[in-house]
């Protein structure tokens, strides 16, 4: 494939950037501007708007950018459906995803596309995780051996959607993202699991080429929903591994880790009582996940000191 950065000479873009959005007007301008600022220019941006009731449509229109196309699409609360809708409209052979509250650095596309010249199928780069209450944190994903099905299943996700480019034909072969309601908030994790079974070649670029915005978990319901989605993915994909006693133990340990992570999120939100309940579930799932005991003590102390919301 020839990678040409002059979009004026190419009828077909090299990269389709799929950007699902819903009521993210205050972040969307930054995301779109970061695409316009790319040193590689032969791209299109396919913006899938879930009928936002803020200024989303006006913000896109103000850019007056011919490489932007906006489609209104009702996803019924399933972001996987929006990403698949974007895939149906995408013209390029390579797909990149960008969540509407994240941004890319200027050389992101140029650097990642270099890797496709070597016959790879998927490229993932590092990101800065940013939030309002803590300094940026550099996150590097992978490495390659962590992206095997077994390691994704038993050790957790190591790939970020806004940091990933992949071949469109590969995505189409797999049927895109799974729109099962039980996977909502973990649909990307489920896709990486299926990709790992396809013998696709993945490369991790050890450069920080974007920013992932971390939002505060304001509602305990969102923590519970994500936990249920993550465990649903684990329960589906455990079937692709052997049914040995060791794998059964590892599956229980993995579920305990997911429950523990939910408890830690509740602790960070000051909901120590709920955190204690999650830690108790984690211990029941796997009493050998030792970090849970320390976290339980800390949550109980905070709860007794009145540091809970």
Automatic annotation (TrEMBL):
Alphabetical list of Pfam families matching this protein: Glycos_transf_2
Segments forming domain Glycosyltransferase 2-like: 16-139
Entry GO MF terms: hexosyltransferase activity
PANTHER family according to UniProt: GLYCOSYLTRANSFERASE, UDP-GLCNAC:BETAGAL BETA-1,3-N-ACETYLGLUCOSAMINYLTRANSFERASE-LIKE PROTEIN 1
UniProt name for this protein: Unannotated protein
Species per Swiss-Prot/TrEMBL record: freshwater metagenome
């Amino acid at each position: 494939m020839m990678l040409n950065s002059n979009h004026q000479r190419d009828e077909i873009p090299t990269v389709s950037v799929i950007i699902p959005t819903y009521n993210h007007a205050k972040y969307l301008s930054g995301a779109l501007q970061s695409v316009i600022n790319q040193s590689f220019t032969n791209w299109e941006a396919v913006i899938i708007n879930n009928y936002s009731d803020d200024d989303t449509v006006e913000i896109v229109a103000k850019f007056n950018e011919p490489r932007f196309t906006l489609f209104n699409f009702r996803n019924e609360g399933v972001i996987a459906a929006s990403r698949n809708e974007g895939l149906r409209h995408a013209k390029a052979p390579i797909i990149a995803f960008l969540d509407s509250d994240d941004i890319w650095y200027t050389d992101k596309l140029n650097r990642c596309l270099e890797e496709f010249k070597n016959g790879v199928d998927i490229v993932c780069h590092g990101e800065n995780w940013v939030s309002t209450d803590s300094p940026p944190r550099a996150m590097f994903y992978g490495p390659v051996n962590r992206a095997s099905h077994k390691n994704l299943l038993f050790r957790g996700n190591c790939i970020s959607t806004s940091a990933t480019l992949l071949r469109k034909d590969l995505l189409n072969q797999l049927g895109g993202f799974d729109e099962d309601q039980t996977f909502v908030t973990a649909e990307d994790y489920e896709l990486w699991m299926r990709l790992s079974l396809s013998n696709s070649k993945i490369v991790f670029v050890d450069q920080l080429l974007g920013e992932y915005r971390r939002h505060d978990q304001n509602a305990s319901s969102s923590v519970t929903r994500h936990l249920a989605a993550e465990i649903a993915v684990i329960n589906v994909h455990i079937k692709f591994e052997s049914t040995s006693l060791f794998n059964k133990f590892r599956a229980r340990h993995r579920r305990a880790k997911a429950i523990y992570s939910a408890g830690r999120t509740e602790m960070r939100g000051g909901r120590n009582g709920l955190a204690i309940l999650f830690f108790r579930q984690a211990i029941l799932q796997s009493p050998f996940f030792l970090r849970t005991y320390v976290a339980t003590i800390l949550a109980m102390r905070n709860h007794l000191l009145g540091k809970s919301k």
